[in-house]
Amino acid sequence: MTVEGWIRDHVPLAAASSAELRYERMVRQGAEDLPGVHREVDPCNPSDWVDGALIGAFLAGLGDAQRVLDVGTGDGWPGLPLARHVPEVVALDPSPRRVEVARANARKRGLPNVQVVCAPAEALPFPDGSFDGVVAGTAFEQCRDPLRALKEAHRVLRGGGRLAATFEDLAAQLRGPVEERAELYLDREAAVYRLVHRSLSPLREAEYELRFRAEDDLRRAAAAVPSVPSFVRAAGGPGLRPVAPDDPLLGIPLVERFRDLLLSARYFELRHRSPGEAAALVEEAGFRGVRVYGNPARLARDFFLGLHEAGVLPSLAPHMDALTRAFGRLYEALPAGKTSVFFLVARRP
Ligand SMILES: C[S@@+](CC[C@H](N)C(=O)[O-])C[C@H]1O[C@@H](n2cnc3c(N)ncnc32)[C@H](O)[C@@H]1O
Question: How far is the CA of 340 from the centre of ligand 1 (A)?
C-alpha cells in the first residue's frame, strides 16, 4: 500500500485546489531566480539565453499579438518577459499570494504595461474576443477543470487569435510507476504533514495536507526530519523528500501514530496528459491547427552552453534579444518527445 492509499482509507478529506494548497503557500515560484521576473536578465548567464529562447518561442507562437493574457502566471512567467516585446499583458492567477508577488515583480522590472488579475482560468473576468494571444507556462494542467479553462481562453481570444502554452510531461519526469514525497513541519500550534503522490498509470498527481495538533511527541517527530533544499517548501518547512510507505519518519507509521491528533485534511488531485491527449483537449475546447512540439529550452541549452564555453556570450550581449527571438522560432523543428515539458500552439478559428 502507498501512503496515499492509507490516507484515503483512513482520513476524511476535503477537496481544495492546487492554487490554495500548493501555490498559495510557496515562498517563490520556480527553482531558480527567473530572469526578467525575479531579477534583470544577465547576458553573461547562459541559462538566461535559454529562457530567452523560450520567450522567443512564445513570441513566435503568438504571431503579432498586441494584447496577451498569461494564464496561471505564478510570479510572472512568461507574462513579464513577454511584456518587453508586446504592448499589453494581462497576467492572471487565482492565488492572492502569487498575484502579490507578480505585481511586485512587474513594478521592480519597470513594466507599466502589465496588469495582474486575481481569478481562476475557468471564469475569466474579460469580455469575449478581448485578446489576440493567450499564453500559459505549465498552468492549464494545474486547473481544477482544464477543459473549462481552455474554453474560456478560446472565448476571450478574437478570431485568428493564438494560444501558446507549455505543459508538464509527467510521464517523462517519473522514474518509476509511483513516486511519493513528504514533509513534516511545525506551523504555530499545528504540525503540517504534506504528501505529494505522482503515478504513471493513471497519469496523475495528488497532494495532501494533514494538520495535526502539535503535541510534544509530534513536535519531536517533526524535529527529527532533516531539511532538504526545495523551492516548493513553505516558509519554515523542511522540503519534500522521497518517502517509502514504511518509512518511520514520514511514511504510514507516522500518520497512523498521530491520527488521533488530526485537525483537518485537505487534498487536490490533477490528471496529467500526454502530448497527444493535451492536443485533443485543446481541440475539444474549439481550437484548430493544434500542434505539439518538444521543449524549446532543450535545444537552446546545448547551443547557448556551447557559446558560453567558447567564451563568446559577452560579445553577443548587444544582440541577445534578436538572437534569442530567432532561436525561439526554431521550435517547429522539435518533435514532442521525452522531455519534462512540451510546447503547444493553436489558433482560434
Ligand atoms: C506550475 S505553476 C506555473 C507558474 C508560472 N506560469 C511559471 O511557469 O513559473 C502553475 C500556476 O497555475 C496557477 N493555477 C492553479 N490553478 C489555476 C486556475 N484554476 N486558473 C489559473 N491558474 C491556476 C497556480 O496558482 C500557479 O501559479
Answer: 17
Nearest to 19 by CA among 106, 128, 144: 144
Give the C-alpha separation, 324 to 153, whole Å: 27
pTM of full prediction above 0.90: yes
CA of 76 to the centre of ligand 1 (A): 10
Which atom of ligand 1 lies at the shortest distance from residue 17's CA?
Answer: 16
Phi, psi for 77 (deg, rounded to 5): -110, 130
Q: Which residue ranges make up each domain of the chain?
A: 3-28+174-271, 46-169+273-347
**Residues with pLDDT less than 70, the chain:** 30-32, 228-238
Give the pLDDT of residue 29. 75
CA 83 – ligand 1 centroid, Å = 18
What was the pLDDT predicted at 14?
Answer: 98
Alpha carbons 76 and 73: distance in angstroms, whole number = 5
Q: What's the one-letter identity of residue 341?
A: V
Distance in angstroms (rounded) separating the CA atoms of residues 314 and 274? 39
**From the CB of residue 121, how many other CB atoms can be counted at a distance below 10 Å?**
27
How far is the centre of ligand 1, averaged over its atoms, from the C-alpha of 74 (Å)?
A: 5
> What's the CATH code, domain 46-169+273-347?
3.40.50.150
Query: According to DSSP H, which parts of the chain are helical?
Result: 3-10, 18, 46-62, 79-82, 96-108, 146-156, 170-173, 216-223, 252-257, 275-284, 296-309, 313-316, 320-328
Pocket of ligand 1 (CB under 6 A): 17-19, 23, 29-30, 71-74, 77, 93-95, 98, 120-122, 137-139, 142-144, 149
